[in-house]
Structure formats: structure tokens, C-alpha cells
Write a structure and sequence with these properties.
With about 270 residues, the chain is an alpha/beta fold. The chain is built from 9 helices and 7 strands; from the N terminus they run H-H-H-H-H-H-E-H-E-H-E-E-E-H-E-E. Helix 3 packs across helix 4.
Length: about 270
Amino acid sequence: MTRCDAYWDKVRDLLAKGDKEGLVEFCEKSPRMIERIIDHVEYEEKHNLRPIGPFSEGTTRPLRTLERINPDLHTCALDLVLNEGMTPKDAVALVRKQAAITPPTGLYNIIVIDPPWKFDGDYDGAARRSVPQYPMMDYEEIQSLDIPAADDCVLWLWTTNLDMKAAWMIAEIWGFEVKSILTWVKNRMGLGYWLRGQTEHCLLCIKGSPIWNNTTMTTALHADVREHSRKPDEFYTMVDRICSGTKLDMFAREQREGWTTWGNETEKF
């Protein structure tokens, strides 16, 4: 028996006895980490992973996350682990790649993109922060996206506070020049640690000489919050008013008249 096997056998024994205090003392981990360890053991037993282990909390985390956000893809990934000998990380990466949606066709004069920026961690009520329950992308993955921009194009790139610098750089890599920043001022406070969030930001970028018709819209957009990550209708009304040409909404979560929508949740709302 390896040292790793002995460690996890002890963890399982303490869990079976319901001795959470003993588990905390044995593992010498924070309560938050203990919850992750418990999730790991329960997941391992649920899917009979022990015979092909050993697996650690960190090893099974990609599978546990995928099970929450996409049960169908999780089933495929778990099959690769159980029957093909793949690691959980590689199995999850493969099924996500195979399930990738077909890239948009044609070129567009107006593109709105709301990338699923990656956030490291899990929900933490004490820190007032959470992780979206859908697959996220790191900077390299976002940067490698094919942006079907016409020679004259306006790009609206939504970003988070922490990803602002990266978003600016990615827009330039895509061949755009950042011209301004639109700030969505929400009607209520959200999560956050250093400051509670009440805004989201969207970089206004251009390529070439797009048609632009604006004399009244400012850098502030006041609109109510709805479902998580859903952008306000007032934003699209503004874009329709001041931009002209073919329109594409990337990572869209609902259909809009006059727009081509692209993403794997275009019918969510």
C-alpha cells in the first residue's frame, strides 16, 4: 500500500464514522478544502473509481465540475476514464473539444462577444464570490477564437474587472483598436471581495472604418440585472441604434431579430 492509498483510506474511514472534526485534524486542511475532499470521496464511490485509482481531490475535480454543468458530456468523459484509461483531465478536455460548436460562417460588421472568462476557484460565501456553472475558457483559448470580422467592423467585447487588461490585449491581437469602454451600471449590488460588484464593462473596438451613428449615448448604461451573465436588452437596443451592417452575437444566450447568434446556449433565455 502506498502512502497515498493509506491517506485516502484513513479519510474514508473517518468519513464513514462521521468524524468530521477528526477529518479536519487529520488532513490539516481548511473547512473549505475539507468540503472538497468530501465531494471527491463521494464522487469516487458513486462512480466506482477506486479500482482504477488512486485519484486525489484535485484529479477528479474536472469530472466533478463537468457533472454539474453538463451531465451528458460528463457521462462521455467518465466512460473514457473507466474504459479507455484516460486521465480525468485529458478525458474532459477531449469531450469538450469534440463537442465544440461549428464556427460562425460569413463576415460581420458588428460583433458582440461575451467570452466565458475563466475564474480559478469555487463558490466561497465568506469571500462573496462564485464560479459560473458553465465551461470556462482561459486567455489562450479566447485569444485563439476565430473572429469573423468584416474589413469595417465594430467589436463589443464584454469582460470582467480582473480580465480588463487581458481583454484589451486580446482585442488588439484580433486586429482591433480599443476606442472606449462602456460600463453597465446595475440596479443592485452583486458579489465581490475588495469591492462588491455593481458594474460590468464592455470594450468598444473598431477595425477599418465602420458606420457609426451616435451623438447621445454615453459610457454609462443603466439597466437592471436579470439572470446570471444575461446582458440587458438596453445594450442591444443601443447597438442596433448606432451600428449598421451584419450582426453577430458570439456566446449568445438568446435569439435576437436581425442577429446571427453563435454558442451552445443560444436558446437559454
